[in-house]
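Exam revision sheet. Question 4 asks you to relate a sequence to its structure. Input first:
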Amino acid sequence: MRSGLQRRLLLLLLLPLSLFALVSVYFDYEAAGNAALQQDQQLRRLIPLLTDSVVAAGRAPGEAPVLLLAPPVEEFIRRHNGFSGFRVSDAAGRFLTGDRWISPVLPATREPEFHDMEEKGVTYRIVAQRVKTVAGDLILQLADGSDARQQWVRSVLLKVLLPNLMLVLAAGLTVNWAVTRALRPLLALKEAVERRSPRDLSAIDPQTTPAEVQPLVTSLNRLFALVNDQAEGQRRFVADAAHQLRTPLAGLQAQVEAWAQAAGAPAAGGQLTLSAEKIIGLRSATRRTSQLANQLLALSRADASSMASQPLQRVDLKDLCESVLGLHLDAAAAKNIDLGLETGFAQVAGHEWMLRELLGNLVDNAVKYTPPGGTVTLRCGRQDHPASGQAQVFLEVEDDGPGIPPDQRSRALERFYRAPGTAGEGNGLGLAIADEIARLHHAQLTLQSGGKAEGGQGAGLRVRLLMQLTA
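Answer key, structure tokens:
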């Protein structure tokens, strides 16, 4: 945007300036032509006066005649000292008096004739005329080196083109500076829009933009409002649907759990009856459905833009880990999983219920995908950033389950994505919910190989959340 608009403005502004410079050169040449015409007319008027300046013939044939320069001729030569001269020759063109550097000319008629001559880098305009004087038939020549048109070709570079070129360059730099400053608010608007998160649909203040751009900003704000309303409607629908499903699903799950316990006793021979297998399968499906409803509700709440306006709380991550650990001890014990805790003192500013949901989803995933007899460890504490040295708080869950291949870890944070070949009964929302909550806390959620993995491959997954330390 900047290069295109700025280039067009510079072109539209500099093109007229260049045309003005060419017009200036043309008028300078025309002025030089007018001055040259006046010089020719002056030389034509001075030739008769130079003729009258011959007052007597020489004492002997071939000698210079006696001259008494007329005052106008004398004034002309004095005023153009070093750039003027005259020559008196006989009828055959032999030099009699005056300046020898003037080349002889033999006029064919008695009318004044003009020609040009260059001497020592100066171009002279010379008028020559054959005249009758008291000394006989003579050829008189009068030279003028101040002819503007003759000097124009040599002086055009320094006196006309160079000043105009410097003027255009100076104007170009000035216009470029002015255009850059004029476009600065527009560039600031572009950068502000580019830096926005896809979830940030807040309105742009039109008063911070130029008047010409305010209609565009108003249209963008209207579009942001429409998109935000649509997204908010979708979030409300998901939240309402998930909330309404929780109560009947909870009742259904309670009934199915009771049926499963009643039908769970093995029949003769140690095998479950067909009806018992169906009830246990129904219990598993009911649990997944109930968990999906709870996760959809959590995802909708984590994705709500209104969370940014709610005040932050001081959250003790050590207490948080201990409370979440207690909620998953039974599920871990059922699979003979060693669910451990390694904590240090760490506090952050955030929303406690959201961080609890984040940690709960990570622990639930770890317990669910870790094979029987495995290990799941919760950790929290403080560490220094390796580059800046700034203190940070970390919260992580590590297991020795199947892990996630490195090339699929970025997609694992997407909603409803499950890596190919993944065992278990998940919905693909646990990591997505954790990532959404991390974004709302301006934190970074990373997936790494577990402690038992070698070279980034093999068993184990470590999910780590890095947050700023609370003062």
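Marking note for examiners. Residues 255 and 283 are 9 Å apart (CA to CA).
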